[in-house]
């Protein structure tokens, strides 16, 4: 695994917490020679702390923390255009940034919540994809790279009170499938990993900060840890080039 990640540059969105943070730490843990990590999110101070943590655990790994809001196309293109030479040849994009806002029955959903969920979970992921694909296509070693999209079980099994979030993740799924077909003749791998319940900041935000309510919904289910998903992401990126984990659902045992 480490050998296949040797020299790779991995770009992770939403790397300041939860699954994104764990994914950064998991890549660093494999300690391949000359690994480079670009960690992005809006909370730059947290990213810098994570970079310091990686620096202690895996001093050979180079880390670039960057403040980035994926929902703002101009920010995304300025970020990609301004990448330092050493980090420019991105090999793997992990489109992980995502959020949920204001769970409510459809008639009561706040229009601002609808906009922010689509802008982040769908448009943000597309912004990043559009910005990175030209790097993959024009690289000296012949048009390759991985896009790993973090979807959700919610994109397959919509639930009451979560219609907009579920719709965003269904959109991610459709976009990912179409993109894979568009790029079928290339060496670019399009991968989707769909988590079930994972214990992160997200799991409580989802219930308006009400942890007791969150616990009740998942009574009897031991949630996954962010590391469980991070391990699958790193595994997918570390397969030999002809192997694509196109569509992987990962949920805790007993989750209905
Ligand atoms: P967290 O809330 O812990 O992490 C979400 C990350 O997204 C944060 O790093 C946050 O960083 C970042 N983010 C949010 N909005 C933006 C934005 N506009 N621009 C850039 N970064 C942004 O939740 P998870 O780790 O659980 O979520 C990660 C992904 O996993 C999401 O796509 C989520 O939908 C998905 N998922 C989660 C599940 C769960 O049960 N936890 C289940 C299934 C899927 P910052 O605030 O610093 O910008």
TrEMBL record:
| Keywords, comma-separated and alphabetical | NADP, Oxidoreductase
Report the superkingdom from the record: Eukaryota
Segments passing through the bilayer: none
Q: What GO MF annotations does this protein's record show?
A: oxidoreductase activity, acting on the CH-OH group of donors, NAD or NADP as acceptor
According to its UniProt record, which protein family does this protein belong to?
Belongs to the short-chain dehydrogenases/reductases (SDR) family.
User: What protein does this entry describe?
Assistant: NAD(P)-binding protein
Species: Melanomma pulvis-pyrius CBS 109.77
Q: Which residues of the full protein are shown?
A: 53 to 308 of 318
